[in-house]
Amino acid sequence: MSRAELKKVVVVEKIISGHMTNAEGAALLGLTNRQVIRLKKKYLTEGGATALVHRNRGRKPVHALTDETKERVAALYSQQYVGSNNCHFAELLAERDMLVLSPSSVRRILLVKGMKKVKQRRRKKAHQPRERRSQAGALWQIDATPYAWLEDRAPAFSLHAAIDDATGIVVGAVFRPTECREGYSLVMQQGIKKYGIPLGLYSDRHTIFRSPNETLTVEQELAGDTKPLSDFGKAMDELCITHIKAMTPQAKGRIERLWGTLQDRLVIELRLLGINTMEEANEALPALLRKHNRKFAVKPKSDESAYIKLDSSMRLAYVFTTREKRTLGQGNSLSYANKLYTFAKPALHRFDAKTVVEVRQTLTGEIVVWHDGEAIELVEIEKPIRKPKQHMKKASSALQRKPASMHPWKTTKQQNQDKRTTTKSDFQDALYSQYNSYAEALW
Fold it and tell me: Region entry Disordered: which residue ranges (predicted)?
């Protein structure tokens, strides 16, 4: 018997012996008077204390899972769904194998089979949660994360994605080999084409989003200079999107938590689809995002949308570009990326020489001149062939010549040397003669 059943036996026996009333026994057991009377009757007519034991003790419940079902669940997990969490595993069983089980049921099965261990839950740090924006499109959060999305079937690559802060909808995503401006540009184009232009964008402080020289000196501020922008920042400025650069990961926690969800679920989904390359993963990504949004998206506080409709005259391909200044030469030609270009329709576009224009290169490699909100098409032309400079041959130094033995220079030199020798000898003789005369006088 359990402790609760033993308590019932003691209380019922006291009531039968007259030491306690039905009301007092009902108060002790937390039952009504009618339930106490039934227990007393069962005790008297069905054999005493054993009558108060639960009738299902030792019997298998009718709704219990069969051993075959448990074995099948364990086999499916080890063969196909290894690594999935309990909730995702239960969803996959219902979706692909027609087995409707609760997450707690599959958890118990895997624990008994030794396929999972009980996780030790750590105490969470206290962070003041930031409320979601009230309207869809008020703020997007954008980021990228490198991960082994295809496990050992391919090298690791980066997933770029943007999420709406108010609804939790992943508005765009794309796989790229590394974190890059092209990946972020494709994500923004996907979201803007499908939903509209958001009011704000939250990102980290990667140099893709900001210029490394954005801090101005006091002299520059007094001169009225503005902060330089990266190519991505210029695109945000052109679309009038307020770009906020977070100082900490917690500031953009919505997208940081998204990575944990996708790294847990997306890896399993890609494995089940038999995807082995990044290109195949990009083809399957839209359908997987729709499935994710159906499950995790929430309704915003306000039904009114904050999205701004994209103007039909604006082409996003010419917004998300690299931008550089070039000076036009004679014939409206310009040099870019070590190639020479000119206008495809020179009759429609004519500029003075030395005019500074903005050259934009799209994600597809198209190069145009951007002027007054219009893209001017360029064509590549051949560079003029310049004749190489002719180098004048320098005269070589003349060979050293030795004069002949009877050359006047040598004769004069020898005569001077003989003269100097003779003069020296005469001087020595005169000096000795004077010394001898002086010595004789002393003696």
Answer: 387-425
